[in-house]
Amino acid sequence: VAADKKVLIVYAHQSTGSFNAAAKDMAETVLTTQGCKVEVSDLYAMKFKAAATAEDITGEVKDAEHFQYGEETMLAWKEGRLSADITEEHRKLSEAEVVIFQFPMYWFTVPAIMKGWMDRMLTLGFAYTSQENSILHYCGFQVLAPQNFWAPPHILSDSRKHAGGMVYTDARASGVNAAYLHPLRQL
Fold first, then answer.
1. How many structural domains does the chain have?
2. Model confidence over 2-16: pLDDT tens digits?
3. For a Cys staple, 155 with which of 15, 107, 134, 159, CB 3.0–4.6 Å?
4. String of b and e for 102-117 (b: at least 16 CB within 10 Å)?
5. Full residue range of the structural domain in which residue 135 is found
């Protein structure tokens, strides 16, 4: 990541002693050292509300009887009537040139709190429109290869440090190869 970039880390893990916390801390340290301005949305520390509801809109909704979250939040976004937490996260997203999602895999996907962040923040009109072929393309993201680490609690400390360091050392290159740590048992 080039110096002077604005970076947003969206982080979802409950434990400050976790591998995910260490990866987040390392990213923040390395990127800051490189001259980037780093902002972190620590969803658990923020007590982030994951449920997408009509409460995300201030004032009256257009059609309370047949509430459609996407349509209602798009209208609220256009009119400046989204809740304060969504407005703040939209600010962070708008200012960010790089977004990092740091989370553990839960049942083959992101934790519910991270999914809630995506549901609530990737607002129709703000993050994408129905005319665009993808949200990430519309937002101008260059998608790097994901970094997967299998069973980090069960590998040696030096290997964990090496794997975590690899992620952010290699992230400066244009493409990142995923680091693979074998699961505890091969099936």
1. 1
2. 778 999 999 999 999
3. 159
4. bbbeeeeebbebbbbb
5. 6-143
Q: 119 burial class (0-12, 13-18, 19+ CB within 10 angstroms)?
A: middle
**CATH number of the domain where residue 90 is located:** 3.40.50.360
What number of other Cβ atoms are within 10 A of residue 130's Cβ?
Answer: 8
Residue 135 in any domain: the answer is: yes
> Token pair of 27, please?
């990213």
Write down the mean pLDDT value for the chain: 82
Backbone conformation region of residue 4, classed left if phi is above 0, alpha if psi is from -120 to 50, else beta? left
Q: What is the pLDDT of residues 116-127, one digit of tens each?
A: 999 999 998 888
118 burial type by CB count under 10 A (0-12 exposed, 13-18 middle, 19+ buried):
middle
Mean pLDDT of 57-78: 95
pLDDT in tens, 127-166: 877 655 455 555 566 555 666 665 666 666 676 666 655 5
For tokens 């009256």, the residue is: 60
